[in-house]
Amino acid sequence: MRLPTCLLSALLLLPSVVAGSEDFDYFAGNRQLIRNGVQAVLTCNGLFTSERTLQQVFKQELAYLGDTAVGKASGGNFRVNTARRWVSVGGGDDGPEVMAAFREGIGCVVMAPGMTTEDIDNLPRLALPPPDRDPVTLPWPDGDLVTSAPLPQGISADVLQAASDWAFNRDTPEQDTVSLLVVHRGRLVHERYASGFDVSTRTRTWSTAKSIAATLIGMQVDAGKLSLDAPLGIDWLPELNAAEEDPRNTITLRHVLHMSSGLYPVDSFGMEYATGSGLAYWAGASSTRGMRDRGLVRTPGSFWDYENYDTLLAFYALKRSLGADQPYLAFPHRALFRRIGMYNTLAGTDRFGDFIFSSQVYTNARDLARFGLLYLNDGRWHDQQLISERWIDFVRKPAPASSVHGNDYGGQWWLVPDERKDEVPADAYSAAGNRGQFVIIAPSHDLVIVRRGLDYGNQGFDPWELLREVVKAFPRSAQ
Description:
By secondary structure, this protein is of the alpha+beta class. It has helices spanning 8-12, 28-48, 54-59, 157-168, 208-222, 253-257, 277-282, 287-292, 308-322, 331-335, 365-376, 389-396, 463-471; strands at residues 78-81, 86-89, 98-103, 107-110, 177-184, 187-193, 203-204, 346-347, 361-363, 380-381, 384-385, 414-415, 429-433, 437-442, 447-453. A six-stranded antiparallel sheet has the order 6-5-15-14-13-12, sandwiched between helices. Strands 1-2-3-4 form a four-stranded antiparallel sheet. The radius of gyration is 22 Å and the shape is globular. 49% of the residues are buried.
């Protein structure tokens, strides 16, 4: 989600009644429900996907919730079952109990209120065969075997270390860097982890997943299975007579990838963590129903509005393009992850088995660096063209409606704003997610930079400032 975490506690603690005004919070129950779900999902994944301790989870993953967290690491109105790998939060005065359960190959799936442990076995799971070769023995970038060697001539080790210190030693604890990777010309030249994290630690990508989703969608466009400018072909809700006359049929794949669908906003304008995708992310609602049940309020393509459901509409179109012949749950692994060595990556679903590719992906820093390398190499991985250069051109071209804030958004990727193109390499672009997740591509400097964070509060970590610091270590003679 785009929402700055400094607002999360405030949103969850909105007063129910403001005297003499129209500000009665009719969604207070939703906010409490979603709060419990946020804690259940982050705790479940923290324990069983990231393999961290409950104390670590409360200190860092749940810092996101601020004062609204239920209980403390020492105890509270939550339950953890390590044998069956589930977590439940809430009940009674704390609002509806919400449970999340770890599922093989998927990560933690949130359940609807009223569901019990008896329902866990019916949740989606994905059993994948082991890799043909052990990634530990495969040389980077296909695997995790990294050979130590001096930095190439022209790269300043001191300046690179200073950039790393800049990322880790922030002047506020709310900017919590947990890993930093720098890849130059395909070589891993810097790798650093905070205490409690290592090369294997998987954390949530948040909206960095949107750029991964766009890659998979691009593969289907390249294959002729989807078209950027054809109608999405969505069966909109509610079902009405004369569905062929529904004005939403004018929405194209390009519109939703540009965050310019024109559909009614449900994840912005103060409704974050109350309606919309929040109910699918954290409360067990169907993502495919929610995203299709929005009316058209603007001409598609005319207004930029960051909505998780726009991404999910695009991915729903991908699902429909697969037909019955290609297993949906295995598609990201078969088409992308396993082809570039992203063996540590889990793509999460809702309880109905639909991917939440707007946020719910768990992976480690090296897998994201591999993903960045694919783009740096113009879509090629060794001798295979996995995504076309034409698609990369599309995701890097500003969405027309983003012109009002500096042409800083393309096709599910963030671009250097116009006003900052004299400050950093103007050709850079970045996947970005809440709590400080960034995969920065700088083609002119042959660089991929991955920064993972567990930021909270006011956040404010600036990826373009990080890029500015890193490129200082790479003078022209090293490029």
